[in-house]
Design goal:
The complex is a heterodimer of chains A (329) and B (107). Chain A is mostly helical and 329 residues long. Helix content of chain A is 32%, strand content 3%. Chain A starts with 8 loop residues before the first strand and ends in a 10-residue tail after the last helix. Chain B has helices at residues 70-75, 89-99; strands spanning 20-27, 37-43, 64-67, 83-84, 102-105. Classes of the chains: A mainly alpha (329), B alpha+beta (107).
Chain lengths: 329, 107
């Protein structure tokens, strides 16, 4: 059995200078993880910036009619996805075409959205704010609304030293909060640290995971960050060809972002369009239809063991973190 | 992303990442659109349809930089391609025309 003795939580970087009156926010993540992709020197995390981002995350004024906030489709208790909704709905009950993704460990992500349409975390929020099926709003109009709404001018001053709200500061505050959404305390992580052990069933599931899943869902983030064609047939109603819409390259037809498997117990329904309700259905797809590189070879007992391992990726410290919920003063 | 690059200034796409590098909108009777409206939003940074152009101008201090729109206006296919709002071959072609349309003039 592998024994890990040295890896404990390290403190992450406080690089660069933000507004000097704001207090640096210390980001913590496991020492064995790679370095974050996010460039903190260009948006140094501060306690005030993170607090502002958290307020904005729960702010329905980001939507045109004041009914939809980020949290409408990204609930903290389900790893920031939209529980029980295959496709999420925005203002006026309009339905989009995709399953809302989980939000965690985003500082390690180099592309965003199921098709990688967005290339930087700071710019991500522009997409749901403007999408008519989500918030249907205009970023400059949002800035105007927040300027007239307490406590925002004061919070922007505390975070960035300027009570005149800008799109840049709005987006950077949201990104700061999202960078703090780190899930690293699942049973899997405790086993890596040597403070917990798998059951025999979980251990066998881990072996099967490494054989069948790990090339795309790479440890420790459980995604390689790449795009893949996983064999799902086109939904003829949604007509979603994935990354091809962005790259306009035939080679990217049906390519979608590989999602993390962390907290997968809570992020159902699954796939970019939420077509599968259970993990068993997901595994049945990989053993029956398979991907362009082949079918997974798993019998019923092995599927059960694999699911047992996937449940070790549930992180209750993350799901019930009081710093992630609705900001009561 | 601050100042003139702030996404509130209307020069950043929302549905996918990337600045709109050049924007020209107006009315031209040749366009078969409603009210003959045209929109040219030139942008895109991913190959093969990148519209980012590197321009080098030798200019004395205090020079005035001029952009001649005539080559662009003559290069648009107004009857069919009057609405460009995503990275495309047409956007790339027009951005190449624009990159040749800057000149420096000493005061």
């Amino acid at each position: 059995m592998l024994v890990y003795t040295t890896c404990l939580l390290v403190l992450g970087l406080v690089v660069g200078m933000g507004w000097p009156m704001a207090d640096p926010y210390l980001l913590q993540y496991p020492a064995i993880w790679p370095k974050p992709a996010y460039d903190f020197s260009r948006n140094p995390l501060t306690k005030q910036g993170v607090a502002l981002g958290r307020h904005l995350f729960y702010e329905p004024a980001l939507s045109r009619d004041g009914t939809i906030s980020c949290s409408s489709c990204h609930l903290s208790y389900t790893a920031f996805t939209h529980v029980d909704h295959a496709l999420s709905h925005g203002i006026n009950d309009r339905i989009g075409t995709r399953n809302s993704p989980t939000l965690m460990n985003l500082a390690w992500s180099r592309s965003f959205m199921w098709d990688g349409a967005v290339n930087h975390l700071d710019m991500q929020a522009l997409a749901p704010i403007a999408n008519p099926d989500e918030m249907g709003e205009d970023i400059s109009h949002v800035v105007g609304k927040l300027q007239d709404k307490a406590p925002y001018p004061g919070m922007f001053y505390a975070a960035f030293g300027d009570s005149i709200i800008t799109g840049e500061h709005l987006l950077k505050a949201l990104a700061q909060f999202e960078c703090t959404l780190i899930s690293a305390h699942a049973k899997y992580d405790q086993v890596q640290e040597g403070t917990a052990t798998y059951t025999a069933q979980e251990q066998n599931g881990y072996r099967l995971f490494q054989q069948n899943c790990a090339s795309c869902h790479a440890e420790p983030l459980f995604t390689s960050g790449e795009f893949a064609r996983n064999g799902l047939p086109l939904d003829t109603i949604l007509q979603d060809y994935g990354r091809m819409r962005i790259s306009q390259q035939q080679a990217d037809s049906m390519m979608f972002k590989i999602p993390t498997l962390r907290n997968i117990e809570f992020s159902h329904p699954y796939m970019h369009d939420g077509r599968f309700k259970t993990l068993r259905e997901v595994l049945n797809h990989y053993t029956s239809v398979g991907t362009p590189i082949g079918k997974a070879n798993l019998n019923a007992n092995e599927k059960t063991d694999l699911i047992a391992f996937l449940l070790t990726l549930s992180d209750h410290d993350f799901l019930f973190n009081p710093n992630y919920g609705y900001p009561r003063e | 992303m601050g100042g003139d690059l702030d996404p509130t200034r209307g020069m950043y796409w929302s549905w996918q990442s990337g600045y709109i590098n050049f924007k020209l909108e107006g009315y031209y009777t040749v366009c078969p659109s409603r009210d003959h409206f045209f929109q040219l939003h030139l942008g895109g940074y991913l190959a093969p349809f990148s519209s980012a152009q590197r321009i080098r101008l030798d200019a004395a201090e205090g020079s005035e930089i001029q952009l001649d729109l005539a080559p662009l206006l003559n290069g648009v296919r107004w009857e069919e391609k009057y609405s460009i709002m995503s990275p495309s071959a047409a956007a790339q072609r027009l951005s190449e025309i624009l990159s040749q349309s800057f000149s420096a003039h000493a005061q």
